[in-house]
Amino acid sequence: MTASASGAAVGRRIGIGLMYGLWKPRVLGAWRVPAAGPAILAVNHSHNIDGPMLMGTAPRPVHFLIKKEAFTGPLGPFLRGIGQLEVDRAGTDRAAVTGALEVLEQGGVLGIFPEGTRGEGDFASLRAGLAYFALRSGAPVVPVAVLGSAERGGRLVPGLPPLRGRVDVVFGDAFDPGDGSGRRTRAALDEATVRIQRRLGAHLTEAKRLTGR
């Protein structure tokens, strides 16, 4: 099923209201996200609010690839309604791949947690999916660091960052992870993944320096 661009726009408005209502986002470098055309936001992932935080702070509506386990009960129709993409992480989910490529082909913004799941949020372990989407679509990759979402202390709701606490969202320079050859072989994907990991790691280090996190 094709992700809805209008749905993602609604999701962005909801994200703005929730994220700025519950926390204090500080956004740096949003101008680095291309104003038009396809783009991939590569986001570090250390907390459940990282996706909604990006939906509320990115300058354009974002279609995130989200694990299928989140699409349970009434949350499933809601997430699909706001243009989010369901992905089965147990194997190659062709429907999710097709949906993600359609977002990019239509000039939309795809959001990916390249680490695959929540962890330390340090980009230490990347999957090849991000490189595949970038090489297949030609869309630039924009590194994004969300800092402060996993901080402890002062929480009124277990599992969430301290309410009204500051969360920094830092966008980096867009880049093309390919080598210019147009290759999409396994070797090309592996090489692109290494380049992506290097760029994302450097961005995270710089974001921590800028924010003092």
Query: What shape does the CA trace take?
Result: globular
Major sheet summary line: 7 strands, mixed
Distance between the termini: 40 Å
The side-by-side strand order for the widest beta sheet comes to: 1-7-6-2-5-3-4
Strand content: 15-25%
Quaternary structure type: single chain
Regions with little confidence, pLDDT below 50 for 5+ residues: none
> What would you report as the Rg, rounded to the nearest angstrom?
16 Å
The number of distinct helices, counting runs of at least 4 residues, comes to 6
Class from helix and strand fractions:
alpha/beta
How many strands appear in the DSSP assignment? 7
- The overall pLDDT, averaged over residues, is 87
SSE string, helix = H, strand = E? HEEHEHEHEHEEH
Helix content: 25-40%
What's the structural blueprint in terms of helices and strands?
Blueprint: H1 5-22, E1 24-28, E2 39-43, H2 50-57, E3 62-67, H3 75-81, E4 85-87, H4 94-105, E5 109-112, H5 129-137, E6 141-147, E7 166-171, H6 186-211
